[in-house]
Write a structure and sequence with these properties.
single chain, disordered N terminus, two-stranded antiparallel sheet, three-stranded antiparallel β-sheet, alpha+beta
Length: 212
Amino acid sequence: MVNKIKYTQNSQVNEPPAFPTTSTAGGSQVRDMMLNDSTDLLDNVEITTIAAECVKLKKKEDEIAAIEEQLKTKKAEADDISSRVIPELLAEQGLTEIKLADNSKVTVKKEFRATLPKDDVRREAAYKWLRDQGLGDIIKNNVFVTFGKGEDDKAKQLLDLAAENGFEPQQKSDVAWNTLTALYQERVQAGLDMPSDCFSLWIKDKTKISRK
């Protein structure tokens, strides 16, 4: 007798594990962990983007600073050509102006500037000099009075009335730089001087190109 043995093979398919449903406490924990991981990922992406934009901003600011420094250098070079090089070359030829091939006119003129010094002692000396020269009318006097709250009516009164009421007016004198410059230019052209120890003064040549 031949004994026949029959083998029965069970085919097994590996199914992916299902995530626990929210119906169980363990499932809720897994879901919360996944949500937290997603939030952290989004936060990291946003931080990376912000950091990248900050780097771009810094680069742009550095580029602007470099351009401004180049502009400052170019302006200094142009000023030197305008106030020294061209005037000296024209003076050597006994000229004060020339015309270029494109009919542009080049002229050299004196540029004046006079201002009051910041030093209080020199500033007061400047006021005294102006008054001694009979030029005190160009000095502006600004008077300030400080009032307390609820004293708007008193603020409208004249300064002498304020002084009578015990307030101490603060007076500040000044001369506009353009007014002082015009006076300086007028005096120089008339052969008169102004004391450089009282005023900040300078004269320099200025080249002007009238473009057609």
